[in-house]
Amino acid sequence: MGQQVLNGIFLGSIYALxxxxxxxxxxVLDILNLAHAAVFTLSAFIALALVDAGLSxxxxxxxxxxxxxxxGILLERIAxxxxxxxxxxxxxxxxxxxxxxxxxxxxxxxxxxxxxSRFPPDTFPDRVIRIGGxxxxxxxxxxxxxxxxxxxxxxxxxxxxRLGRQIRAVAESPxxxxxxxxxxxxxxxxxxxxxxxxxxxxxxxxxxxxNSISPDVGRSVELKGLAVIILGGMGSVPGAVAAGFxxxxxxxxxxxxxxxxxxxxxxFAVLFLVLIARPRGLFGQSAAREA
Amino acid sequence: MSLxxxxxxxxxxxxxxxxxxxxxxxSPAASGGGGAASGGAVIGAALSLTGPAASYGAQQRxxxxxxxxxxxxxxxxxxxxxxxxxxxxxEQGITVFQKxxxxxxxxxxxxxxxxxxxxxxxxxxxxxKVPVLAVSNTAATGIxxxxxxxxxxxxxxxxxxxxxxxxxxEKLGFKTAGVLYGNDDVFTKAGYDVMQKALADExxxxxxxxxxxxxxxxxxxxxxxxxxxxxxxxxxxxxxxNAASIVSQARQRGWTGPILGGNxxxxxxxxxxxxxxxxxxxxxxxxxxxxQDPANQKFLAAxxxxxxxxxxxxxxxxxxxxxxxxxxxxxxxxxxREDIEAGLGKVKDLATPLGKFSFTANRDAQHEPxxxxxxxxxxxxxx
Lengths: 291, 383
Prior knowledge:
Chain A is mostly helical.
């Protein structure tokens, strides 16, 4: 029981970290960035390539995260900015991000091949920590720690800094933000940088945790990430965090007690039920705010 | 407003994305001197070069290339094998089979890698009366029972696992087992069915059973539940990529007991990826790497020359080509579809890397299996 709770928190921390970036861009632009999972994949590969090149993981991880951030800026420039201001930019942005996802996946396929790649065995010290009656590897503890710290930093950044205020202002109304002197394009680019960096961090941590990276690795979190941000309330960062851990725990207990075939069924049934009770998700804001 | 004007960027991106993706298939493998294809028999090989079974596909391709070179050098029969990627999926497998049958007009087909794909693609060949020789399908049903044009040189799990478990029990003396299997794949599910029966026959009690799906990467929930039931041994039916992750995560979860695997473990990729966690894992196998038979030594030499680590899959693929060459020889050098079909029926006690090879009355493989265990990072035959 205790062990399964740990397993769930561990899995949930990766879902949550992936989803906060996902939901951040949605909150700012009202657009689903379907390339988020591809950035997750690319970042895992970048970290792997750096580790293979002899870099220590503690350098490779931040480097891959920053690289993912820049991929996010690139993504925004290519797939979103040219479409901005058009009447149908929500849908066309969705489609062009899907295309970028395919391009990124194809790049990963060309460079790293279709096989599953793995970090060298001694990348991370293999130590087991006992917590009550349960065990966790040092790696798992670090992953949960890194996820929580990153999510806390993001929350502080959005709530307390000038940059965070600008991003929130753009989320509220790009036009009003522009009138108030906010550089909207810059704020959006920064939001993409942060979003993709967090998605990239999730990718590296996922790759380390399950030590199995392939060009389609993003698919294992893509749909779950979408479920997490809908469950948490589209655009809500605390909602994504809570929903991430919730779905992680649900998934683990479903697999252990009902069997793996029910893994997604139960997750999505919970999503369905929550949406019936709270159409805007757990932490969703009321519609009145947009008026 | 025209579509192109409204959607220029998304469309352009989608198109370029499609262009990027269209590189999955391989050009025909121009084995044995390319241009001389005119006289030889054209064989199509549908192998999983991408997807979850890619690690087998790569081995099979190496085995096929080596065998074609050996056959063409020996003279008499001339083969021209074209290799296409079935992407480890039923859909792509069907597409590749249609291409082989209708466009390339091949005389026979080798593959596809997975039983799952074979169950969907083989009926096309049966209908078109094109002989298919499966070189890695091990599911008990849904392969050769599709029809009289479907043959295989790979032993079924049902032929390998009971012997392997019996030997493992003699060595390890376990009484209870925790079972983990992939329930979304014909092969791993079939492996589970056989394992369950083999465990029952050996009087081993099943302490717990858990499942997973091919795309899964996290097995902690299942392993935690299984280990909590305190079995003497873990029994796993999985493909190599899943197998490596499962074994690693089991060791991380503190499992130090023995692990018995199905045929999916029979790959150097498994040991490479699982690393130290693979030590002690026991698997039944249809290829005895230590066999001193001249046919096996010739195979080992060919693989060494190609710089490929030989395994059961490359041995079976190599054997597949040797069998087709023998079938053509048996039909007097004729390379039509019916000639090869008739020739396959006459293959008997053929010397191959797998040992003396014959087909059963149901066109399944018949030869002696072995048991191997991972020791010092290598599969070693358990005598």
